[in-house]
Amino acid sequence: MATELPTTDIRIGAELIRRRKGGIPLVCLTAYTYPVARLLDPHVDLLLVGDSVAMVLHGHETTLGASLEMMIAHGQAVMRGSARACVVIDMPAGSYEDSAVQAVASARRIVEETGCQAVKLEGGVDMARQIAAIVATGIPVMGHIGLLPQSVEKEGGYKIKGRTDEAIAALLADALAVERAGAFSVVIEGTIEAVAADITRRIAIPTIGIGASPDCDGQILVIDDMVGLTVDRVPKFVKEYADLRSVIAHAAERYAAEVRDRTFPGPAHVFWGSTAFSGTNGGDEA
Ligand code: KIV
C-alpha cells in the first residue's frame, strides 16, 4: 500500500492536465486534509480542495458555508500531504463574483498562501471576465459548469442540467466561454449524459465529469462519498468503493466495550517503570 510521500519532486501542473485532453482519463478526487492527501496522492492526477469541505467536514447545509480562510487552511494541509498531484483550490462563494478585481485578489491570496497549482470557480458566460482576469495574472483556472452547488439555494435544490434544447445551448455556451477565457480544464457537474459527452467533443480543454458522462476526459468524486463516509445524502452519481461508515462505527463500538470492561488499555498500551523496560513497550517514547 503506497502511503509514503513519493520522493519525486515533479508536481503535475495545470499545463500537463490541459495536454491530457482526449488521452488516458484524468483521475481526480477531492481532498481536504493532510492524511487523506497523503493516501490519495500516489493514485490521482489532481486533488481538488473543494468548497464541499464546508458540508463534508464542517457540517454546513450547502457549500455557501465555505470562506476564503477555510479554503486556505485546508489547501495548506493538502499541499503538505501531496507531492505529485496537481492541487486545485475552490474559490468560495462571495470571493470572486462581484468583479474581476475581487476575483484576482482572492485567487492571488489562495495561491500565495498555499502554493497550489490552480484555482476553480463556478460559472460560465457570466464568470468569463473573472476567469480571463485571473488567467492573465498567470494563475491557472479550472472552470465549473452545469449544476453549480454555490447556486442551489437560488435554484431551489440540486437540479440536473441539460434537459431542454434551451438548457443544452446554455451549457454549450458556458463551456465555450470558459474555454475562451483561458481555463485549462472544466468540471461538468450534474448534466444529462449525452450533453456532457457532446461538450467534451466540442471543446479543446479537458472536461472533468461528476454526474456527467464516462466520455468526459476525467472523473471526479468527493472523497468522503467515494469511500462510504458520507453520513447524510449520497448523490445518485456516487459509487462507494468502500464502507468506512461501518468500519468506523464498528471500531467505535469495540473501543467503547473495551474501555467499559477495562480491557483497553492493555499491557501493550501503557508505559512500565524502568525495571520493566522491554523494548517497544517500555521506552520513553510514545
Ligand atoms: O466542491 C467540490 O467538491 C466540487 C466537486 C464536486 C467538483 O466542486
From TrEMBL:
Instruction: Give the reactions, separated by semicolons, that this protein catalyses.
Output: (6R)-5,10-methylene-5,6,7,8-tetrahydrofolate + 3-methyl-2-oxobutanoate + H2O = 2-dehydropantoate + (6S)-5,6,7,8-tetrahydrofolate
Could you give a GO molecular-function term held by this entry? 3-methyl-2-oxobutanoate hydroxymethyltransferase activity
For this UniProt entry, what's an example GO CC term? cytoplasm
Top-level taxonomic group:
Bacteria
Where is the protein localized? Cytoplasm
Q: Which cofactor does it need?
A: Mg(2+)
Where does the chain bind Mg(2+)? 51, 90, 122
Q: What class of enzyme is it?
A: transferase
Residues annotated for 3-methyl-2-oxobutanoate binding in this entry: 51-52, 90, 120
Q: Which residues form the active site?
A: 189
Q: What is its EC number?
A: 2.1.2.11
The UniProt keyword set, sorted, is: Cytoplasm, Magnesium, Metal-binding, Methyltransferase, Pantothenate biosynthesis, Transferase
**In the record's cofactor note, how is the cofactor described as bound?**
Binds 1 Mg(2+) ion per subunit.
Task: Reply yes or no: does the keyword Transferase apply.
Answer: yes
Output one GO BP term: pantothenate biosynthetic process
What does the sequence similarity comment in the record state about its family?
Belongs to the PanB family.
Q: Which PANTHER family match?
A: 3-METHYL-2-OXOBUTANOATE HYDROXYMETHYLTRANSFERASE (PTHR20881:SF0)
- Name the job this protein performs: Catalyzes the reversible reaction in which hydroxymethyl group from 5,10-methylenetetrahydrofolate is transferred onto alpha-ketoisovalerate to form ketopantoate.
Q: How does it assemble?
A: Homodecamer; pentamer of dimers.
Name the chain's protein.
3-methyl-2-oxobutanoate hydroxymethyltransferase
Q: Name the gene behind this protein.
A: panB
